[in-house]
Design brief:
single chain; mainly alpha
Amino acid sequence: MGEGNLHSFMACFYYFGPLFFVVALLTQWLIVVPLFNGFDTVTAKLLGITDLLTACLFAAATFAYAIWDSIDGLDSYISLFSKLTMIQLTYWAMNLSVMFLLATRLKKAEENTIQKEV
């Protein structure tokens, strides 16, 4: 498992997957949701998403460089970078779309309860 290639990286996910899942949930609950709720306007949310995309690219480049074996050439690095970027972007696209849907649904529920009270 310690060969430093993509198969070793995937084995790490296989063995530590439950731990990563718990860390992702805690990150979501403690950091991402309060930040998402703190953005009042659509423009602020889009700027937050842009910052998130920049952080994803930086993290993907960093992790790909750490895993990359320079003997394999630059094509190997570009392949690792693109795979890691796609994994992160897919995660965040699903995550943010669910958060937008939940925010819309919660807003409608609040409006309904306000109308019922009046």
